[in-house]
What does this fold into?
Amino acid sequence: MIRVMRIWFYIIAVSSAVVAGSVLPACSKDEKSNNVSEQSVRKAGAPPRPASEARTAPHQAPAARSAKPAADQRKGSVNQPDKIAPPATAAELSRALTVPAGFQVEVFTDQVPNARAMVLSQSGTLFVGSNRVGRVYAVVDQNGDHRPDRVHIVAEGLTMPVGLDLHKGALYVSSLDRVVRLDNIESRLDSPPKPVVVSDRFPGDMHHGWKFIRFGPDGWLYVPVGAPCNICLMKDPRYASIMRMRPDGSELEVYAHGVRNTVGFDWHPDTGQLWFTDNGRDWLGDDAPSDELNRATEKGQHFGYPFCHAGTISDPEYGVQRACGEFVPPARKLGPHVAGLGMRFYTGKQFPESYRGAIFIAEHGSWNRAQPIGYRVTVVKMGPDGAPASYQPFVEGWLQANGAWGRPVDVLVHPDGSLLVSDDRAGRIYRVSYRGS
Ligand SMILES: [Ca+2]
Ligand SMILES: [Ca+2]
It folds into this structure.
């Protein structure tokens, strides 16, 4: 009898630990991680994480244990705005969203559930990734009247296919531990090809495992690998980095270190330098640290994580190991917990002169802040020295007093100069255009 009770006690203790472990650490900065177990990831083809890749968490590294803040020392709170119904009509939409004078916002399509990153082909097909629904969409507007005629599903069953880009007629798509390719995609929208694996050399962690990917002007495919935690130091240098590889998957290497989780980047149209957003750590309070807009000027730079946040905030646990001065500071601090995801330089001509060369940022919005923030598109305008000079809201209104009906994820400059914005909560893509004053 005593033995049976002991076993019951053990089962209850372990279950409680599992529940506790799956609630807080599973929270990611820009959204909660998918509720999918590592076991189901392995079933989907991802290899289990080798022992050598174990994180150097305090429970495994006695030297760091004393610096670990206990759970009750975390600063901050969870406040995820309720999901409310999106505006149903064009009139309601224009009342809900605020834009600068002369601009207007329309729904481009509402047929893309869980819409994430976007890429537009030369012939005008808009490919859209997703997260938990595992699909890739192709939105076709045959006559270019900004009213899509058809939405195809060109891939499904992928694991968090957030990011995608086109190269020589093939659509490259991220899927957790791998990048796959759909060849000659535009001629096969009705009968899409089976994805071909380009590389499966990425970790299989679900936490920050979704990947925005893009080809750089140098022809390399850039693939970030997020930290598999809120805050941790991994021995494997692939974690918390931006990696890159050749289009055939060869020469995989780390391009930038110390990046917690970037879900959007672009190259400056004149300098060719890589600019990227990075989502700061959680549980340091409502107002710290700021999320970051960063600029990489060469390969091999370190952007601070997990030692230093937002250029000046030494991490309470890892900051003793390396000083903030050792790292590249952000080019611009964004708001705390705003969750800046997709970003693009404005290369169009439709918007007024002051927007030329500015950076638009899709802010997915906070969960770890008493007063929610983000849920908007912001704009960073550049000064004459090429450095960010201002940071302001551009489109706001997805967040209302009683909840949030949408969450911006990615932005894309259309060749006609308008700006497309994807929204994974409302399953929509919007078109922001300028009509003049
Ligand atoms: Ca059309
Ligand atoms: Ca940083």
User: Anything to note?
Assistant: Residues 80-109+341-437 form one domain. The radius of gyration is 22 Å. The longest helix spans residues 2-23.
